[in-house]
Amino acid sequence: MSARILIVDDDQGYRFSLRDYLAHLGYRITEAGSCAEARQILKSRELDLILLDLQLPDGDGLALLDEIAQMGDAVEVIMISGHGTIEKAVQAMQKGACDFVPKPGEMSDLVARIKKALELRGLKRRSAGRTDGFTPPIVGKSKQMTSCLEACRRLAQTDTTVLLLGETGTGKEILARYLHAVSPRRDGPFVAVSCANFTEQLIDDDLFGHESGAFTGAHKVKQGKVESADGGTLFLDEIGEMPYALQAKLLRFLEMHTYTRVGGVKERETDVRVVAATNRNLQAETKEGRFRPDLFFRLNVYSLYIPPLREWRESIPDLVGHFLSQMACKQSRNGFTITPEALERLMEYHWPGNVRELRNVIERATVISTDGTIGESDLPFLADDLKESPQGRYHEQLLEYQKQIILSALRECHGNRTEAAKRLGLHRTDFLRRIKNLGLQTHLPLQNKSTDS
């Protein structure tokens, strides 16, 4: 996408020649001959760079520079003037201009400065959400997970929308981060959004941001998640939890890659790769009328299934070794080992919470261990009745496992739901929904209201 440049100069001859020269180089040019014209354009269009004259017929370029800075658009500004002084140049730089160029001057010099300013803007927008040093997912001996990573590497070379499918705790966000880290967008931001946290009132503000004064309390411009993800990857987690009424707004963004901030009129563009994830059967949800078919088709360009941990048990020893190393670093310990009996117990367990639950169990065990060796006595969380049993139907057992895990976490956190949700790696909204769906409201331990929010 070619850069969008606004030229603000009352010298029509200079403005026209500059417009023609830059347009020939492939830039998208907009013009203004006054502060008033520039303000109208700033309200309605998104820009990457402004070439701003110091002296305009209806105002001071430095004053307009202040207004631009308050808009929060992260647009770069190069001041241009035929009457510039060192003092004015210093003032412009202090107010946020990235350069100060005298006119008339060599076009080649100005173009070089424009390229430098655009590189600076790109660097600023990429600085958030970097995945430098990202460690690839641990897959051990699993052929299924090895195939998943191979599919990710192939998909990473495209901008195709990807839908990650799998149970809670299977590592969908980790896989999304891996896809980003091996893609050409790796130097851009990775921005994760949990759709389970959205309400109709917050969707626009959280995703698309707002303008100053858009509503009570909106004292300054807020950049939304889609704007933060420009040049990188936008990860929409728990997409199946998004309320039906909000799905049309998301669909429009996915179709057009354009959006408008709350309280604004300017249609903005963003260059993002979208990866979504869910533990729901979205095809069934569409038939039940809980998910828009058009949104499902738009997301389901390529779907990738992540198997539950019970289907790749052969990699549990590798995962355990990885998590023990992590915990040793986290707790500043020399290292941890695990007995064959304890490892066998981990291999036998059904892992309804998948890799996330395994990591939590290992972390708790390392906290309990006094000598650095994890034994069976350090795994009280895996009660005998939670082991995989050949009796009983699969779904009934799975529901029972989920109930026990939630109740165990609540007991350990003295009833504090916020802390219990964090311990299980769940968003509080999702955690409370699971309590309700599993009918646990009357079985919960008393909570300390002074510590729960």
UniProtKB/TrEMBL annotation:
It holds the Pfam family Response_reg. Gene3D superfamilies: 1.10.8.60, 3.40.50.2300, Homeodomain-like (1.10.10.60), P-loop containing nucleotide triphosphate hydrolases (3.40.50.300). Keywords: ATP-binding, DNA-binding, Nucleotide-binding, Phosphoprotein, Transcription, Transcription regulation. GO terms for biological process: phosphorelay signal transduction system; regulation of DNA-templated transcription. The modification 4-aspartylphosphate is found at residue 53. Residues 4-118 form the Response regulatory domain. The keyword Disulfide bond does not apply. InterPro entries: AAA+_ATPase, AAA_lid_NorR, CheY-like_superfamily, Homeodomain-like_sf, HTH_Fis, P-loop_NTPase, Sig_transdc_resp-reg_receiver, Sigma_54_int. Residues 138-367 form the Sigma-54 factor interaction domain. It comes from the Bacteria. One of its GO terms (molecular function) is sequence-specific DNA binding. Coiled coil: none annotated. SMART domains: AAA (SM00382), REC (SM00448). This is Sigma-54-dependent Fis family transcriptional regulator. It comes from Candidatus Manganitrophus noduliformans.
